[in-house]
Design goal:
Keywords: Cobalamin biosynthesis, Glycosyltransferase, Transferase. The chain is α/β, with parallel strands linked by helices. The chain has helices at 24-36, 46-58, 92-102, 106-114, 153-172, 188-199, 203-206, 215-232, 239-246, 249-263, 273-285, 302-311, 327-345, 349-352; strands at 69-76, 117-124, 134-135, 177-183, 268-270, 293-295. The chain has a 6-stranded parallel beta sheet, sandwiched between helices. Helix 11 (273-285) runs parallel beside helix 12. Nicotinate mononucleotide binds next to strand 4, helix 6 and helix 11.
Length: 357
């Protein structure tokens, strides 16, 4: 017989030091500069707040234009997709990876417009992905979360560490604003479970139409969410165990990525329901990380609105989108760039000889 065991030390792969806030002094200086620019006070509305936030993130006023915006798409298959919870078959995940690489997906077109580049990461796609994909495959598809864990604790920690390493690689290569995107048939089911679990919301209030499911499919999805939520309830306060129980390597990697971006003082534009579910967990892994994130858009998924409210994030655009891939965040990137440009480049009242009252 062994005596009582000391609790495990938290694994370093999921331990984040204190997260700094964006620079308060610079935030104040940027707010003051806004008042000197040739416009009625507050007339640029939300753009003024966004520009002040970016200045504080960069630690400099005036802020610099973004030089390397990056979209990182975390791809993974989900065991629950085999139970008929999506409008599309599971093989679409791997097929869409080829489409991303060929430049034919919505995110490729939107990223071009916004001046961003795209990286695709395979966390748990079934089968072998092409060599130009970043391969961090932890396993082939998550477990069927209504009946079994998504993955082991070891796999979860490996996926979180992969997300952190990817953030480090991107930031070390000069990325100055990051977007996480997702691709995975069935992934709105685990995302909804995570959001329902963390925010204590009933499944019926958060289960959405995903890729466009009909009423019968919605009933199956709601049942899957209910059953997975029941399995997740006992671990809801432990973010790593919650990921292992009810997410997948893709979501765990996104959580590590989002928290690491905050630790590395790099702003992130959040996308839709899947990325924001990972963000809820990332905030629990690294308290204060959400200060480094802005919500790019509001997806039509009801769980997304619940998660945004919980994180107190106000989406930049609301265009009825429900695509994923980082598309909603990428639409918001030019708005953020415009905000930065006004704060950096507008003339002041005294420079332009305009009366300020
Ligand atoms: O980002 C969103 O809010 C969003 C909403 C609905 C669907 N999606 C995308 O559609 C896929 C998941 O939908 P589903 O119905 O298969 O769970 C996955 O590839 C997501 O990127 C994404
Ligand atoms: C075609 C297709 C593209 C997607 N992109 C993100 N999720 C998707 C789901 C489908 C079905």
């Amino acid at each position: 017989m062994t005596g009582p065991q000391a609790p495990d030390e938290p694994d370093v792969r999921a331990t984040f030091g204190a997260i700094d806030q964006p620079d308060r002094e610079v935030r104040r200086a940027a707010s003051e500069r806004q008042l000197t620019l040739t416009k009625p006070r507050g007339s640029l509305g939300r753009l003024e707040d966004l520009a002040v936030w970016i200045a504080a993130c960069q630690g400099q006023c005036p802020p610099k234009p973004f030089t390397r915006p990056r979209v990182v798409i975390f791809a993974g298959d989900h065991g629950i997709a085999n139970t008929g919870v999506s409008a599309y078959p599971p093989e679409v995940t791997a097929q869409m990876i080829h489409n991303f690489l060929a430049g034919g997906a919505a995110i490729n077109i939107l990223a071009d417009v916004a001046g961003a580049s795209v990286r695709v990461v395979d966390m748990s796609v079934r089968g072998e992905t092409p060599a130009s994909v970043s391969r961090f495959k932890v396993r082939e598809a998550s477990g069927r979360i209504d009946q079994e864990d998504a993955m082991s604790m070891e796999e979860t920690l490996t996926a979180i560490a992969a997300g952190r390493a990817i953030a480090d690689e991107e930031i070390d290569s000069g990325a100055d604003v990051l977007i996480a995107g997702d691709m995975g048939i069935g992934n709105t089911t685990p995302a909804t479970v995570l959001i329902a679990a963390v925010t204590s919301t009933e499944p019926v209030a958060v289960v959405g139409r995903g890729t466009g499911i009909d009423d019968n499919t919605w009933m199956r999805k709601a049942t899957a969410v209910r059953d997975a939520l029941r399995r997740a309830k006992p671990v809801v306060r432990n973010p790593v165990e919650l990921l292992a129980t009810a997410s997948g390597p893709d979501l765990a990697a996104m959580a590590g990525f989002l928290a690491q971006c905050a630790l590395r003082r790099t702003p992130v534009i959040l996308d839709g329901v899947v990325v924001t579910a990972a963000a809820l967990i990332a905030e629990n892994l690294a308290a204060g990380a959400s200060e480094w994130w802005v919500a790019g858009h509001r997806s039509t998924e009801p769980a997304h609105t619940v998660a945004l409210q919980y994180l107190r994030l106000d989406p930049i655009v609301d265009l009825g989108m429900r695509l994923g891939e980082g598309s909603g965040a990428t639409i918001a990137l030019p708005v953020l760039s415009a905000a930065v440009a006004t704060l950096a480049n507008m003339a002041t009242f005294s420079e332009a000889g305009v009366s300020d009252q």
